[in-house]
């Protein structure tokens, strides 16, 4: 005699139509999402392809790719090997440029024309190349200085000279793809950069001989590379040998666009749209920095920060953040290149109590300037200074009041409820509303990026002032007016000196 099924047997069967419907709905939504993404990518592809057929043509410095050593060759070689390969590469590049440059390319504003007003040769030494500065007497330490993206070792020169004056051997490597032609960054990337930092640190350890302290200084992308070196050594349980880290405008976080920048270069797979491999295609009139910017460089900068985040997360998971050396970092409160707040929240807030300090350069809060500042980008620093429970010191350098441009340094020491105020002897320049990402490493009297007349026969970019109608120049007026020096550079160097052992 058949028996009726119980409720437990019926329940799953009653649920099948609902589950099937749910799967069907999910499938439809997934297909729609895939179609929407495909259409979006197609639109991006089409727009980029169309734009690449407009504007200036590719020049030799956009198409000649220098012959750099591979990451493997750099990692297994020595500093001497790297410098020798660099010298050969510069010679080959010069010959290729000379053969492909047209007479019309040799202008007073072309950095690749030896007699131009923007040539590195006007500085008596090509600071685009790797260099070592030796102290006058017996060495008391070694410092490695890593420059930023599209930059060159020139940006580390004032810091290198500071360390040399205080008895340190200063080693500044040129990151592959830099200091030559912008096309170098269409091939070289983070693997070669990491290998170069590793190789240079090996040279620093050789020079230190286990007796001298080693400092590691990084600017922008170079700061991320320096931190990545330290974090990966800790993660692997290897001795880092770094006594102190100094960072300027550290690239802890970049614009979200950089994550997907590679998509913008897809049309370049077709020769007709080769220019889509570039985000900026500009004249090259900066002796020690590229103006043109390839898509691949943006993508690589994001991947550097992503790798750094993974390494920091792993060190934190191992509960080894206490092994990170003391860090002294300098950051402008407003920064159009990197996430300024991320330096505090994603790096410093994770450090152990080891004597680290974050120095923030505030905007000019003069009551004449304040009404035209975007508060969403500037007010966060005031809240930051009010929080006392930190394991690092926080210093904000800015005007004493909205009516007084005298600059003071307000410091909240570790765990203190009291903000200490110290006079700096500086004044906030009346025509400057903030510092900038690119200006931090350079003094006001820098021959190229400062605004104090240098007496050289060059175009001094920091003093450049062009006026006229908008939308006429091929270079954006914003880029020309962006502050290229640090009016508080002397203060910054003074703070670094405090971290250098006196004997």
Question: Could you walk me through the main structural features you see in this protein, from its secondary elements to its overall organization?
Answer:
Strands 1-3-2-4-5-8-9-10-11-12 form a ten-stranded mixed β-sheet, sandwiched between helices. It is 36% helix and 13% strand. Strand 8, helix 10 and strand 9 form a beta-alpha-beta unit. The chain has 503 residues and is of the alpha/beta class. Helix 6 (190-208) packs across helix 7 and helix 7 (221-235) runs parallel beside helix 9 (295-317). The longest helix is centred in the N-terminal third of the chain and has 46 residues, at 7-52. The protein is globular, with a radius of gyration of 26 Å. The protein is built from 14 helices and twelve strands. It has a single domain (60-443, 488-497), classed as 3-Layer(aba) Sandwich (Rossmann fold), CATH 3.40.50.1820. Residues 1-13 have low confidence and may be disordered.
* Name of the CATH homologous superfamily: Alpha/Beta hydrolase fold, catalytic domain
The number of distinct β-strands equals 12
Poorly predicted ranges (pLDDT <50, ≥5 residues)? 1-13
Along the chain, the helix and strand elements come as HHHHEEHEHEHEHEEHEHEHHEEEHH
Q: What sort of overall outline do the alpha carbons produce when their principal axes are compared?
A: globular
How much β-strand is present in the residues? Answer: 5-15%
- Biggest beta-sheet profile: 10 strands, mixed
Helix content: 25-40%
Oligomer: single chain
**Which structural class matches the secondary elements?**
alpha/beta
Number of helices: 14
The CATH topology, please?
Answer: Rossmann fold
Which CATH top level class fits? Alpha Beta
Alpha-carbon distance between the two ends: 101 Å
Strand order, largest beta sheet: 1-3-2-4-5-8-9-10-11-12
User: What is the arithmetic mean of pLDDT?
Assistant: 88
Count of all domains: 1
